[in-house]
């Protein structure tokens, strides 16, 4: 209770006794959980389990399917006969030592001694072990007060004991005799299904978690209407209302895969894993990748992506930065220029020779001075060359003109550590989120004071932000007061109104790093030390976040960056 992960294990009498099959992440925290009886499963869709999750505001069905090539036939191996609904004995008989199992006497009397009304229906149905085959299962008349459209009627009796005959009227209480309603009266498994055969390998990651909506919304996923006549006179016709289908992402079936090992850079040694949480840890462009090393003096390895494979065991040429590296980034308009922020409050600009590093670089192209304390984040301007922005523990954000080698503007207004900053796609605005729980929006060409402010994430452990939906919205990742990681969506022109939507993901110590693809509106989220990458399509209309397939790697991430879009293999529909 209180968690948002459902784990599914296979239990075996031999070792390993427990084998994890899959896991499902839900949107809301679990307040209660109940399994739906097997008679309610959609066996023709190979649904082997359905649970109902109780959240703070909804009752959410979660369905588990076993993938099979054919869904037109009944799979006996998945669905053995299950227990029926009539007792084998009564309470007095059990106390007297009767331990008989439920079975059917064709004269209409159970072996346990409880009389039932003889009829052709009972004689044709195996009450003790009921078949799940649709053609052989008993008539479905189960009702539930939580399912829309299944309303029982009183047919001249009020008895509630299973299989009990009302002696005064001779009428059999049929609503407890014949099992459960069809699966469509609970939920459409296809609308909220978790595949039990989902691979956990690096080539595909987990299958997508079920879409967690209210019960009425899931009922509407299939949007079908049906009416059923009263089978034994005990019920009137049942009508399932036609409901609108909930939205789903166009990219919900996206699959992440690890490229062939021949394209990997391996045998990396002495990497620095102590860069601040505000830094991505390393950076890459189309040609090369820069990696801080643990060696003294702030050494940085620069490796050519055009030369993948195993690195030699000997030392490779490096950049001698002269101070421990806090953050680093490539110039988007000059693939040979690398900006490095040091813990000595200086920014150094390095120019990589054509063809890559052949010898150690010791002299930077330029050094920018102005901050009074450690710098922990730097970003190039997205549309103008020679413009760089930096943030520091001195609680200032400074904009630098690199061609002149000087500071041109210092943005004020922060009262605590600045966790993250991001230029808008058009380069007109700069957004920041800080430890004081505020999001600020600047227009540097108009004022050095924030133009807007709004409430940010509650927790003070860290936060990141990125512009989404054409620059009209801000997505912020952070923590709540209970250290749950969550993402928040803000309208950029109305920060003071607070977030439009808040989505809790999980509980973990590292800040989620968001990477946004403008072409598909898909945001990728992961943290240092995580093995899972969350994917959501972000939309400007409710529900705002549409879940896509996540990706799971075999080893925890030490860092995570995205290559420019031009690196994608479009012929294989690769988009990130």
UniProtKB/TrEMBL annotation:
Pfam entry (one): DUF1899
GO biological process: actin cytoskeleton organization
UniProt feature, compositional bias: Polar residues: 151-162
Ranges annotated as biased composition (Low complexity): 177-205
Cellular location(s): Cytoplasm
Keywords: Actin-binding, Cytoplasm, Repeat, WD repeat
Cellular component, GO annotation: cytoplasm
Spans annotated as Disordered: 141-211
Compositionally biased intervals (Basic and acidic residues): 165-174
One GO MF term: actin binding
DUF1899 domain location: 244-309
PROSITE patterns (alphabetical): WD_REPEATS_1 (PS00678), WD_REPEATS_2 (PS50082), WD_REPEATS_REGION (PS50294)
Superkingdom as given in the UniProt entry: Eukaryota
Principal subcellular localisation of the protein: cytoplasm
WD repeats: 368-410, 411-443
Family: Belongs to the WD repeat coronin family.
Function: F-actin regulator involved in anterograde Golgi to endosome transport: upon ubiquitination via 'Lys-33'-linked ubiquitin chains by the BCR(KLHL20) E3 ubiquitin ligase complex, interacts with EPS15 and localizes to the trans-Golgi network, where it promotes actin polymerization, thereby facilitating post-Golgi trafficking. May play a role in the maintenance of the Golgi apparatus morphology.
Protein name (record): Coronin
Species of provenance: Emberiza fucata
Gene symbol of the encoding locus: Coro7
């Amino acid at each position: 209770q209180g968690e948002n992960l459902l784990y599914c294990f296979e239990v075996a009498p031999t070792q390993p006794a427990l084998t994890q099959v899959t896991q499902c992440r839900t949107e809301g925290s679990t307040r209660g959980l109940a399994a739906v009886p097997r008679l309610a499963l959609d066996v023709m869709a190979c649904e082997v389990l359905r649970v109902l999750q109780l959240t703070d505001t909804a009752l959410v069905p979660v369905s588990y399917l076993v993938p099979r090539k054919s869904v037109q036939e009944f799979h006996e191996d998945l669905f053995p006969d299950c227990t029926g609904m009539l007792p084998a004995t009564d309470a007095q008989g059990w106390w007297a030592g009767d331990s008989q199992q439920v079975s059917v006497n064709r004269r209409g009397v159970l072996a346990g001694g409880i009389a039932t009304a003889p009829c052709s229906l009972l004689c044709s149905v195996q009450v003790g072990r009921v078949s799940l085959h649709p053609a052989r299962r008993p008539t479905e008349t189960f009702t539930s007060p939580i399912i829309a459209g299944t309303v029982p009627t009183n047919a001249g009796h009020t008895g509630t004991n299973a299989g009990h005959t009302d002696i005064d009227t001779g009428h059999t209480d049929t609503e407890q005799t014949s099992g459960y309603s069809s699966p469509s009266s609970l939920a459409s498994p296809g609308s909220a299904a978790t595949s039990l055969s989902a691979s956990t390998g690096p080539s595909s990651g987990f299958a997508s978690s079920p879409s967690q909506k209210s019960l009425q919304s899931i009922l509407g996923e299939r949007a079908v209407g049906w009416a059923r006549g009263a089978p034994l006179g005990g019920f009137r016709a049942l009508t399932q209302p036609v409901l609108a289908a909930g939205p789903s992402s166009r990219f919900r079936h996206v699959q992440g895969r690890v490229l062939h090992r021949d394209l990997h850079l391996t045998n990396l040694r002495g990497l620095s894993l102590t860069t601040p949480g505000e830094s991505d840890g390393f950076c890459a462009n189309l040609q090369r990748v820069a990696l801080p090393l643990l060696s003294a003096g702030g050494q940085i390895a620069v490796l050519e992506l055009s030369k993948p494979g195993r690195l030699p065991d000997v030392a490779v040429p490096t950049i001698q930065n002269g101070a421990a590296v806090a953050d680093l980034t490539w110039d988007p308009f000059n693939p040979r220029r690398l900006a490095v922020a040091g813990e000595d409050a200086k920014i150094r600009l390095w120019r990589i020779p054509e063809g890559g590093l052949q010898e150690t670089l010791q002299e930077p192209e330029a050094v920018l001075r102005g901050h009074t304390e450690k710098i922990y984040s730097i970003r190039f301007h997205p549309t103008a060359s020679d413009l760089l922005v930096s943030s520091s523990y001195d609680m200032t954000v400074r904009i630098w003109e690199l061609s002149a080698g000087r500071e041109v503007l210092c943005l004020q207004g922060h009262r605590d550590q600045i966790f993250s900053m991001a230029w808008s796609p058009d380069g007109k605005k700069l957004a920041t989120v800080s430890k004081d729980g505020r999001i600020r929006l600047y227009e540097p060409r108009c004022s050095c004071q924030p133009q807007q402010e709004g409430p940010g994430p509650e927790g003070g452990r860290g936060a990141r932000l990125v512009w989404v939906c054409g620059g009209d919205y801000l997505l912020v990742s952070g923590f709540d007061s209970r250290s749950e990681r969550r993402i928040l969506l803000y309208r950029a022109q109305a920060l003071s109104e607070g977030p439009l939507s808040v989505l809790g993901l999980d509980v973990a110590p590292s800040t989620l790093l968001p990477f946004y693809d403008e072409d598909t509106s898909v945001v990728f989220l992961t943290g240092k030390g995580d093995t899972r990458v969350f994917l959501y399509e972000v939309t400007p209309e409710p529900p705002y976040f549409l879940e896509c397939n996540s990706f799971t790697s075999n080893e925890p991430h030490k860092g995570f960056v995205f290559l420019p879009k031009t690196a994608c293999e479009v012929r294989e529909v690769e988009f990130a």
